[in-house]
Amino acid sequence: MPLYSPPLLLKSKKDISSQSHIEDALKGLEHSYFYNGKRLGNSNIIELNVTTVIMDADENLYLRSCNYSGQKYTWKTVIKEQLIKHLKDLGVEYGLVNSETRYFEVSPEQHLPIEKYESRLLDLISKVERNQEGNQSL
What are phi and psi of 122, to 5 degrees? Predict the structure, then answer.
């Protein structure tokens, strides 16, 4: 690893959710993530796709799907930082964000081949859309 590793750069970000923010995070929430990445040629440059999924106690889903590009060295940090920022952007209190992510570690089991990554993302998007339709009919 070089002395200075520039961070992966965010190329695109898409948020999809059935609510704009989490009403009461203290009631409980669950978070997960999955990712896909590939090296570009023989270099240390990678493309990384990361989706973070948060579900509140009322079973509302909040998705954030991002695409990054750059040096490979900070890819695990980028995934953790995306989760932290996603929670904060949804209005989760600072202390609870720290509590939820303190022992968070990126796991190779969450890496999916591109076809499975896209399929899982589409399944989650359709779930969010069904929740939105259900909330509008109430």
Answer: -65, -40
Is the pLDDT score of 19 beyond 80?
yes
- Rounded to whole angstroms, the Cα distance separating 120 from 100 reads 23
Structural domain of 24: 9-136
Domain assignment of residue 1, yes or no: no
Length of the chain, in residues: 138
Distance of CA 37 to the CA centre of its chain: 14
**In-domain check, residue 90:** yes
Residue with the larger pLDDT of the pair 104 and 2:
104
Domain count, the chain: 1
pLDDT, one tens digit per residue, over 42-93 is 888 999 999 999 999 888 999 999 999 999 899 999 999 999 999 999 999 9
For tokens 């939105």, the residue is 132
Would you say the C-alpha torsion 13, 100, 89, 122 has a positive or negative sign? Answer: positive
27: buried, middle or exposed (CB in 10 Å: 19+, 13-18, 0-12)? exposed
d(CA 13, CA 70): 16
4 within domain boundaries: no
